[in-house]
Amino acid sequence: MQPAPITSLELPGIKKLRSGKVREVFDLGDTLLFVATDRLSAFDVVFPDPIPGKGAVLNQLSAFWFRRFTFVQNHMITADIKKFPRALAPYHHELHGRSMIVRKAQPLPVECVVRGYLAGSGWKEYQKSGTASGVTLPPGLKLASQLPEPIFTPSTKNDVGHDENIDWKECCRLLGVDVAERVRDLSLKVYEAGRQHAAKCGIIVADTKFEFGLFENELLLIDECLTPDSSRFWPADQYVAGQSPPSFDKQFVRDYLETIDWNKTPPAPSLPAEIIEKTSQKYHEALERLIGAESP
């Protein structure tokens, strides 16, 4: 039986630093506790209805990738609840499967988006100008077309409201050329490694976004990694260029929201029970496919 969904969390005696769109962040002194709730954010608006088990999927997939990608440093210290500080022992039931202890990195002010296929805002921009975040693309591409090679299309990070795509020049201005080049190269490398593994599991990683932070002058991959919240996952056996493929992520919710009378600003509408259940199933299937025989 699946545990009751968690939409918010307080841990008496443990200082909460902030609540993001999905994660609760607690201060443990030298480290942070990240807890992935079951909140759903779509079009940068948090919905009133949780997606059962979603937070555990996000946490376990991120932990899986963080362990797998040994070529890039990341912020995770442990996702093993048995290794958590003793002060968290009273809260193991709430934290189990959906939390990790991480380093206190200072986030960079840029989202590192990598696109291997043309979808979302990239497709909308391409239709207007033949570009994606200012990157010129070949003519004649369709919705969901695979790009000749993956491209780095950064955006600004906004805790409230919509992220905004920026070009390479603005990325360099915000981060400095050296750091911008490092996060671009690492993002492309992580995407490629994730894409290759996902392909073996029957999943296309159409695009994804990463975050990086600085910890003791070291660049770390932070937040989450290649999850259904941060990526577009498509079933390879149902992919057809020119059509919007079915997905293992919240695109299913976005597609539903496009059919109703809602202006994509708060407050968010309630979701039908069948949409909630189907979305939960899609998240769990992504986890099962991607970690497969490899335990998280």
Radius of gyration: 19 Å
CATH superfamily of the largest domain: ATP-grasp fold, B domain
CATH architecture assignment name of the largest domain: 2-Layer Sandwich
Number of helices: 7
Query: What is the overall silhouette?
Result: globular
CATH class of the largest domain: Alpha Beta
Unreliable residue runs: none
CATH topology of the largest domain: D-amino Acid Aminotransferase, Chain A, domain 1
Biggest sheet details = 7 strands, antiparallel
Question: What class do helices, strands and sheet pairing give?
Answer: alpha+beta
- N-to-C terminal Cα separation, in Å? 20 Å
Helix content: 25-40%
Total strand count, please? 16
Strand content: 25-35%
What does this structure look like?
The two termini are 20 Å apart. 41% of the residues are buried. The mean pLDDT is 93. The chain is of the alpha+beta class. Strands 8, 9, 12, 13, 14, 15 and 16 form a seven-stranded antiparallel sheet that branches. A five-stranded antiparallel sheet has the order 1-2-3-7-6. Strands 4-5 form a two-stranded antiparallel ribbon. The radius of gyration is 19 Å and the shape is globular. A hairpin with a 2-residue loop joins strand 14 and strand 15. Helix 1 packs parallel to helix 7. The longest helix has 24 residues. It folds into two domains: 90 residues, Phosphorylase Kinase, domain 1; 142 residues, 2-Layer Sandwich (D-amino Acid Aminotransferase, Chain A, domain 1).
Notable features of this structure?
296 residues, alpha+beta, D-amino Acid Aminotransferase, Chain A, domain 1, 2 domains, seven-stranded antiparallel beta sheet, five-stranded antiparallel beta sheet, 25% strand, globular
